[in-house]
Amino acid sequence: MVVEKKHKRQIMAFKYGLSLVVALLVLIPLYVAVMGGFKTMGQLMTNPFGLTFPLLMDQYAGLLSGRVGFFWSALFNSVLVSMLTVAVSIIVCAGAAFALSRIAFYLNGPILAYFLLGLLFPIAVAMLPLFLQIRDLGLMNTHLGVALPQVAFQIPMQVLLMYAFFKAIPQDLEDACSIDGHGPVGFLIYMVLPLSTPILATTGVITLVASWNNFFLPLLVFNDHRKYTLPLGVMDFMGQHMTRWNLILGYVTLALIPAILFFIFAQRYIVAGLTGGAVKG
């Protein structure tokens, strides 16, 4: 008994120690980035980890006021593209997952397998044909030209997650809707979607994060810096201010804040949605 308790304490100590190391690996760069925006170049080069007083607000004030860079336009473009991607993908994938999970027909299996094949298709392979298609549709340098391909690449994962969740909804609820005079569409709108808030939130968060961090598609579509999203904005800003690392760190910090705040707010939905369809009933 004593040996077993000692073994458990050692395992717990190892877990906490490993968690502490991982936390430090994440938090130290964040700390350097945040504090670097408050320093002069001399202070940043000589003392990157230390606190300096007084804290200089010039970098952050210039970025937030628009005197330096295009932070607010990049933030607006990221929000717009992400919202378009999330809205369209949830509408399309919810309908597809519902049809595959609740409407019985002999092609359910092959169609679902066809959707899941998209998980094996890397976006880099599609760059050239995707560019040609976007150009032919007249969507170059438009937000929709980024949002629609992102929706296409999110369909396999979203359909897979929603399919499992919708499949777990009891048949009794569908029978009750039928008695009330609702068909499949009514069952989807009035019963399935209200019960599926966790998985809808989960797929929405996953899609939003993927869209927010996407670099290649905006780089492929946008040729005007006023249309750049935040990842492209960071790249463009670094190219313009290569020697002013304190200013670059300030821009990177501001670009990280929306994503961090959103993840803190939405993390419980991710866990709830991923586990919601695991056990039927």
Uncertain regions spanning at least 5 consecutive residues? none
Form type: globular
Element order, helices and strands?
HHHHHHHHHHHHH
Query: Span from first to last CA?
Result: 39 Å
**The CATH architecture of the largest domain:** Orthogonal Bundle
Our count of domains comes out at 2
CATH class of the largest domain: Mainly Alpha
- Helix- and strand-based class? mainly alpha
Subcellular location: Cell membrane
Domain ABC transmembrane type-1: 75-266
Protein name: Thiamine ABC transporter ATP-binding protein
InterPro entries: MetI-like, MetI-like_sf
What does this 3D model show about the protein?
The longest helix is centred in the first third of the chain and has 35 residues, at 2-36. The chain has 2 domains: 2-63; 68-276, MetI-like (MetI-like fold, Orthogonal Bundle). The two termini are 39 Å apart. The protein contains 13 helices and no strands. It is globular, with a radius of gyration of 24 Å. The model has no long low-confidence stretch (mean pLDDT 83). It has helices spanning 2-36, 41-46, 58-65, 71-102, 108-116, 127-136, 143-167, 171-179, 184-195, 197-213, 216-221, 230-240, 245-276. With 281 residues, the protein is mostly helical. Helix 1 crosses helix 13 (245-276), helix 8 (171-179) crosses helix 9 and helix 12 packs antiparallel against helix 13. One of its GO terms (molecular function) is ATP binding. This is Thiamine ABC transporter ATP-binding protein.
